């Protein structure tokens, strides 16, 4: 598909500071080292300027350095990464449409009671259950399953091999990556006197508000009663587990292999680094940053950096690490002295 720089500048007028050069056309985005004469690139430094590119998105500072060294059309922006997020999503067709299939693949199974908005695309062997409601321009890719009464907002993308359990509500512009399971049965069992475990039915739902991203092979359990809720703008990485009745606050980021146990509440704009663990019924304050395989065994009462298990403020955690090394050296010294005393005796 061919795009024009006139369209680009008009559509993204809110982020474009200035332009240089003659308007042109481009057909795709690429990295500077793989760019051709028909590509749009995002250039972080003048040293990475390629021999040819149709369009260069960059900062004013870098633009001033390369003006005399390129004939490309240059677009200056204030924040290159934010511009890349908006512009690349717009011009990457895979994110906007399944161009390889008809709008609704003939092998898809769609219940007669399901309602699909305009411009939806349903891939091969996808299943849309009874009373599902899909907004406009929703994409459901191959082999995904939507159980009954799933609701999906406009412009959301459900990638291949996803399972959305019954009653799931997904907002606008959400992305669920391949292999994820949303609204699976929560992990709850009651032992009897003999030690045998009996399942506790989980009949709640999962709600993903607008602009939520769920990484590949992540699992979000439905509530026992009520709901498990990820609020607007939450981003979770691959291989994340969120248990029943958890609430995750707006614009929080949970990275790979993070696990949040049942009925915990994660605040707004929290960042959890890889392999963070949160015990059940714990609260994490708005703005907390959880580092170094953080183990949340008690409530995190305030914003700032926390690390280790059990979680401690970062300065205390680092001080304890240093103290541990000193204790190890002291132990070695004591053993040496003890050996000398033993020899003297």
UniProtKB/TrEMBL annotation:
Domain Mannose-1-phosphate guanyltransferase C-terminal: 105-184
GO molecular function, one term: N-acyltransferase activity
Keyword Glycoprotein belongs to the record: no
Keywords from the UniProt entry: Acyltransferase, Lipid A biosynthesis, Lipid biosynthesis, Lipid metabolism, Repeat, Transferase
Gene Ontology cellular-component annotations: membrane
Gene3D superfamilies: Hexapeptide repeat proteins (2.160.10.10)
Pfam family, one: GMPPB_C
One GO-annotated biological process of the protein: lipid A biosynthetic process
Origin superkingdom: Bacteria
NCBIfam families named in the record: lipid_A_lpxD (TIGR01853), PRK00892.1 (NF002060)
Protein name: UDP-3-O-[3-hydroxymyristoyl] glucosamine N-acyltransferase
Source species of the chain: Arenicella xantha
């Amino acid at each position: 598909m061919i795009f024009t720089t006139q369209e680009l500048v008009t559509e993204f007028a809110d982020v474009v500071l200035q332009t240089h050069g003659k308007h042109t056309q481009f057909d795709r985005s690429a990295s500077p080292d793989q760019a051709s004469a028909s590509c749009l690139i995002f250039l972080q430094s003048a040293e990475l300027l390629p021999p040819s590119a149709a369009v260069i998105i960059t900062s004013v500072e870098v633009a001033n350095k390369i003006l005399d060294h390129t004939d490309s059309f240059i677009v200056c922006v204030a924040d290159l990464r934010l511009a890349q997020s908006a512009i690349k999503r717009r011009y990457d067709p895979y994110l906007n449409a399944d161009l390889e299939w008809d709008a609704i693949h003939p092998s898809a199974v769609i219940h007669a009671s399901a309602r699909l908005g305009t411009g939806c695309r349903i891939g091969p062997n996808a299943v849309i259950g009874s009373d599902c409601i899909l907004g406009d321009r929703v994409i459901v890719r191959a082999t995904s399953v939507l159980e009954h009464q799933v609701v999906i907002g406009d412009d959301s993308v459900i990638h291949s091999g996803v399972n959305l359990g019954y009653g799931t509500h997904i907002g606008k512009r959400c992305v669920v990556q391949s292999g994820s399971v949303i609204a699976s049965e929560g992990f709850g069992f009651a032992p009897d006197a003999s030690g045998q475990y009996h399942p506790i039915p989980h009949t709640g739902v999962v709600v993903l508000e607008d602009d939520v991203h769920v990484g590949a092979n992540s699992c979000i359990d439905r509530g026992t009663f009520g709901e498990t809720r990820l609020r607007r703008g939450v981003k979770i990485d691959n291989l994340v587990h969120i248990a029943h009745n958890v609430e995750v606050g707006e614009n929080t980021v949970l990275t790979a292999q993070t696990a949040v146990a049942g009925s915990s509440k994660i605040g707004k704009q929290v960042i959890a680094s890889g392999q963070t663990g949160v015990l059940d019924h714990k609260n994490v304050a708005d703005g907390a940053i959880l580092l170094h395989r953080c183990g949340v065994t008690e409530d995190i009462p305030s914003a700032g950096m926390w690390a280790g298990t059990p979680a401690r403020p970062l300065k205390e955690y680092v001080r304890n690490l240093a103290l541990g090394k000193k204790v190890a050296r002291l132990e070695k010294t004591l053993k040496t002295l003890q050996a000398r005393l033993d020899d003297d005796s």
